[in-house]
Amino acid sequence: MARALTDADFIYRRPAHGFPHVVLLPGLVAGKWMWEPTLHALHEAGYGYLTLVGPMAGEHDRAEPITGTVIELMDRCGIGSAALVGGSFGSLIALDCALRFPQRASMVALSGAPGMFTARDVAAPFKGKATRTFGNALVDRLFFDRRCAPEYGVNETMMLFQDQRRLAVAARLMRESNHYDYAAALSKIDARVLMIWGADDCISPCRLWESHLAPSARRGMFFKIQRCGHVPMIERPRIFNALLMDQLASAPLGRFGHTS
């Protein structure tokens, strides 16, 4: 039986009067640390938010129960509907939540969603031991500019690679992501879908999303950020947060955009 989530497993902040909620879903091996600049921006603007503290590679080795956990947490916090914002594997969960529980998603934002074209590449040369060489290789895959990688975040991720059980869970979830049909899911979502990609993302290639997957969304907007890798919310937070905030405030955005 899966362990019940405690207050230490998630962070919830009530919104200011009249502001909506935002649910931030972290990556497979990166937890809350990847959302720190966005959490600060949401707090300053008055939005309520809910986010998981740890990475998605935790108790469940399938996406379906993770999606169920997110909805249960929303219920627990009294959140009827929210903007569901996912980074990396969290994007798959955000999309799955909106697909299975459409009334709970006022908007969906995706960034760096994994798929069959990325599973082979996501784990830098890992030989069963989380060495500094491995850590450096992982940072080089995730970031266009490795100077943007926060040391404490990298250390947290390295700790996950030392946990064999969670590493096995991560591998099973990544295999499942191989078969997730993003185009079909996007075509069925009625909510607005904002997609923000690093132009230099070598894990979830921007060019494939921009040309083949993003156009499947009924109400989709795709933006790419130049000189940016897999985690634009960390590497280019000012631009990422501006795009997200504009859409949260329902400011008009073009269907496809480009930032420099």
What does this structure look like?
The structure is a single chain. This protein is α/β, with parallel strands linked by helices. The protein has a single domain, classed as Alpha/Beta hydrolase fold, catalytic domain (Rossmann fold, 3-Layer(aba) Sandwich). Helix content is about 40%, strand content about 15%. The chain has an 8-stranded mixed sheet, with helices on both faces. Helix 1 links the parallel strand 2 and strand 3 (about 50). Helix 1 (about 35-45) packs across helix 10 (about 235-250), helix 2 (about 65-75) crosses helix 3 and helix 3 (about 90-100) packs across helix 7. The longest helix is centred in the first third of the chain and has 14 residues, at about 65-75. The radius of gyration is 17 Å and the shape is globular.
Order of helices and strands: EEHEHEHEHHHHEHEHHE
pLDDT below 50 for ≥5 consecutive residues: which ranges?
251-260
* Text of the CATH class: Alpha Beta
Helicity level, as a percent range? 25-40%
Strand order of the largest sheet: 1-3-2-4-5-6-7-8
Tally of discrete structural domains: 1
Rg is 17 Å
Count the DSSP helices: 10
The secondary-structure class comes to alpha/beta
Give the strand content: 15-25%
Q: Summed up, what is this model?
A:
This protein has helices at residues 36-45, 63-76, 89-100, 132-142, 151-160, 164-177, 182-188, 206-213, 232-235, 237-248; strands at residues 10-13, 21-25, 48-52, 82-87, 105-111, 192-198, 220-225, 256-259. The chain has ten helices and eight strands.
